[in-house]
Specification:
This protein is an alpha/beta fold and 318 residues long. It is 30% helix and 27% strand. It has two domains: 2-119 and 287-317, Quinone Oxidoreductase, Chain A, domain 1 (Alpha-Beta Complex), CATH 3.90.180.10; 122-262, NAD(P)-binding Rossmann-like Domain (Rossmann fold, 3-Layer(aba) Sandwich). β8, α4 and β9 form a beta-alpha-beta unit.
């Protein structure tokens, strides 16, 4: 099979397409013929050496395809089943990926493989941030930074379905229109001068109850001044350090929570998958694919996923 292999940490060009042996599923494992692999910012951190997975390795935790074979003791899946992958044993930037049974979840017929490749990291992150970390409630107001990106779109859709008032930020007209289309009540340009005042104006001066923060090193200090009493910030992404004033937390009894999807417990993951399945089936969750690239353009995908002006999910097609 063809697979992307990383043999040293470095820039995107360290990812090379190679011939590799097709794995065989062991007990409790499934082999999936990958039809699409999702590209996430976390993939770039691993490749660059920021998180240092053991070398050599195949990148990718999101993907979708068809079960090719199952190992002993697999009960929930059979060959031919359409699935999306929530992590895998061998990585998803490949023609075949080996996964534990629990990592392969049913993919509804109405959801394409490219859409399926953009499910677990974006939608699992959004659900965990809103429901399990922030304990968001219907009637509250949420600010979603980067509302036109993969996690941002997922958060907008989940929050709207939960009965929240959704404010998004986007840096392009195209992204602005996408966030509105996917359920945001208001969208502001995060590059515009005075956009924080615009957010406060939308809330009538009260502030927002929940903020989902994708770039804390840039936005966190300003976020704290946007919170309503007892508001919560959930830090989903950060690329550096930031200085904040603790008094901004104290005066309104607010809180900052950090989260990493991979810390999710088994019971929490099961709850997330149930919520995702329900939303995919009833149409409230609709993964948006912004760009499809062939597998051999994995280096280009890693450059694009960190560019400003995010628009949906970037997907590799083996």
């Amino acid at each position: 099979m063809k697979a992307i292999i990383v043999r040293q940490y470095g820039d995107p060009d360290v990812m090379k397409i190679e011939e590799a042996s097709t794995p065989t599923p062991g007990p409790g494992q499934v082999l999936v013929r990958v039809r699409a692999a999702g590209v996430n910012p976390a993939d770039t951190y691993a490749r660059s050496g920021a998180t240092k997975p053991p070398l050599p390795y195949t990148p990718g935790s999101d993907g979708a395809g068809v079960v090719e074979a199952v190992g002993k003791d697999v009960r929930s899946l059979e060959p031919g089943a359409r699935v999306y992958l929530a992590r895998s044993v061998t990585g998803t930037y490949a023609e075949y990926s080996l996964a534990q049974e629990v990592q392969a979840q049913p993919l509804p017929e109405k959801v394409s493989f490219s859409q399926g490749a953009g499910i677990f990291v974006p939608y699992g992150t959004a659900f965990r941030a809103l429901s399990q970390v922030a304990h968001a409630r219907a009637g509250e107001t949420v600010l979603v930074h980067g509302a036109s990106g993969g996690v941002g779109i997922a958060a907008v859709q989940f929050a709207r379905a939960m009965g929240m008032t959704v404010i998004g930020t986007a840096g392009s007209q195209r992204g602005h229109e996408l966030a509105l289309r996917e359920g945001a009540h208001h969208v502001v340009d995060h590059k515009a001068a005075g956009h924080t005042e615009e957010i406060l104006h939308i809330t009538g001066g009260k502030g927002v109850d929940v903020i989902l923060e994708m770039l804390a090193n840039v936005n966190l200090a300003a976020d704290l001044k946007l919170l309503a009493p007892h508001g919560r910030v959930v830090v989903i992404g950060s690329r550096g350090d930031v200085t904040v004033s603790p008094r901004d937390l104290m005066v309104r009894d607010t809180a900052v929570h950090g989260m990493l999807l991979w810390n999710i417990a088994a019971e929490e993951a099961a709850s997330a998958h149930a919520a995702i399945q329900s939303g995919l089936e009833n149409g409230t969750l609709r993964p948006v694919v912004g760009l499809e690239l062939p597998l051999n353009e994995a280096p280009q995908s890693h450059r694009k996923v960190l560019e400003p002006g995010a628009y949906g999910k970037i997907v590799l097609i083996p």
